[in-house]
Design a protein that fits this description.
Oligomer: single chain
Largest sheet: 4 strands, mixed
InterPro entries: ARM-type_fold (IPR016024)
CATH topology of one domain: Serine Threonine Protein Phosphatase 5, Tetratricopeptide repeat
CATH class of one domain: Mainly Alpha
Shape: globular
Mean pLDDT: 91
Protein name: HEAT repeat domain-containing protein
CATH superfamily of one domain: Tetratricopeptide repeat domain
Radius of gyration: 23 Å
Helix content: 40-55%
């Protein structure tokens, strides 16, 4: 039995967040509502707000489930507000709270609803949501407190100027709006002549950091655009082999509410392979892994085809995690390495998670160091932290003479980025960088300043 990878427990949140658990696929009516909600989400990501509001309202009308119907109405209100239609936003938000919407904190702090806060109905809507919350069977996903904002990757964009563009307040409740942040990212790209800008948030829901959100602003200068080179976006629609992709997504839908509600025992969160996100120890999860163990090894080519060809990034992300169930560690690595630079950050994250966990449990190097170093140059925090954890385990498994031969070159190539990351506040930025620095230096230091001093003593 192998425990899942021992990285800090957190969840990356890229959208506005949800008040309710993900929907389990249901009968025909439910499937139609899910299709409409997916279309609405696509319009939201494209910043097509009138279409987003229309599709979320249609999803609500088609939904037989009261909780998710209220969630769709709530999302429609956000889209109406973003479109500048305050009256429509208020009216649909009334329907949401009348229908049971209960995430009062999300409602209160959602920046997309800022135009509604001056309306006469606002306080009553918040009060009704709180009354709904008092009757809710389970608490909603909590609104975190913003603990820090890290900026990484640009030599031109000053951190204070970036924070001014974003308008974020450390120490305050924080709801991440992907739409509003997309506008801020465009402003950053224009102001600082950047090839890439992405605002990501990680929310910690375990251990001493529980309830804290950390924002990382990842930037790539125009002259460094090769850092953001990715594979072409797939356009295919391969068949889901044995329904495995759908089953994995059903597993995640069942897992995350249990995780957020603190219902998973870390000692039982284990699986039969190197990586599986949250394990299968809870009774509600126990039925999934036997199916993955039995079916994935017989469907490796078809699962790999989903990862290579599927236009749906969520299906590709699931396929990457399923490949942990290949019959050998080397087979898992062989099938995943070609997709390290998938165009979707979520897919890249899953590819690197499985590679990292697989190398962590190995006793010999399974990848080339150069492959991992290249992965560490990619632009987002989820690219870097997985890559540097992966590099840590890879260096641990190198023969001593091979590690000695690599030290100087890796220090010269990675040293500046590593000591910069060691000064960042988000643990998933800082911790893997320090781990690699310790392997390269053979030393331990408690501060970023000490690591900077160490780097200054190394041969140029």
């Amino acid at each position: 039995m192998m425990k899942r990878i021992g990285m800090t427990l957190c969840m990356a949140l890229l959208g506005t967040g949800c008040a309710h658990s993900p929907k389990v696929p249901g009968p025909e009516q439910g499937s139609r509502s899910e299709s409409l909600a997916a279309a609405a989400e696509k319009a939201y990501r494209a910043l097509e707000f009138p279409r987003c509001a229309e599709d979320f309202r249609a999803a609500a009308e088609a939904d037989p489930d009261g909780a998710t119907r209220a969630e769709s109405l709530y999302r429609a209100a956000g889209c109406d507000a973003l479109a500048g239609d305050t009256h429509a936003a208020v009216e649909v938000l009334k329907r949401a709270v009348q229908g049971g919407y209960f995430n009062a904190d999300h409602l209160q702090y959602n920046p997309e609803l800022e135009p509604l806060r001056a309306q006469a109905d606002w306080d009553g809507l918040v009060a009704q949501a709180r009354a709904n919350l008092a009757k809710a069977a389970e608490p909603p996903f909590p609104v975190p407190t913003l603990a820090s904002v890290d900026t990484f990757g640009s030599r031109k964009a000053d951190a204070a100027a970036v924070l001014q563009v974003l308008g974020l307040e450390v120490g305050k409740p924080f709801v991440h709006s992907a739409a509003l942040m997309a506008k801020k990212e465009a402003a950053l790209r224009k102001q600082f002549n950047l090839a890439f800008a992405k605002v990501g948030m990680s929310f910690f829901f375990a251990e001493e950091l529980k309830g804290n959100a950390f924002v990382t602003v990842d930037l790539v200068d125009a002259e460094d655009a090769q850092r953001a080179r990715f594979l072409p976006a797939p356009q295919g629609h391969p068949k889901d082999p044995e329904g495995l992709v759908a089953r994995w997504r059903a597993y995640e839908d069942r897992l995350w509410p249990l995780q957020v509600q603190g219902k998973l025992d870390p000692e039982k969160s284990v699986c039969q392979v190197a990586h599986c996100i949250g394990g299968f120890g809870h009774p509600d999860l126990a039925d999934f892994e036997p199916e993955f163990l039995a079916k994935v090894p017989k469907a490796l080519d078809a699962v790999t085809a989903v990862l290579r060809e599927d236009a749906d990034e969520d299906r590709r992300a699931a396929a990457a995690l399923l490949l942990a169930y290949a019959p050998t560690a080397r087979e898992t690595v062989r099938r995943l390495v070609p997709f390290i630079r998938d165009p979707s950050s979520g897919v890249r994250n899953n590819v690197l998670r499985v590679l990292t966990a697989t190398q962590q449990t190995a006793k010999e190097p399974l990848l080339d160091v150069a492959t991992v170093v290249d992965a560490a140059s990619m632009p987002t925090v989820s690219d870097r932290n997985k890559s540097f954890y992966l590099l840590t385990y890879l260096l641990d498994d190198l023969p001593a003479e091979a590690l000695d031969a690599q030290r100087a070159g890796l220090t010269k190539q990675l040293g500046e980025d590593l000591v910069t990351m060691a000064a960042l506040q988000q643990p998933t930025n800082r911790e893997p960088a320090v781990e690699v620095l310790e392997r390269l230096s053979g030393e331990k230091h408690d501060t970023a300043e000490a690591w900077r001093a160490w780097l200054s003593r190394q041969p140029k």
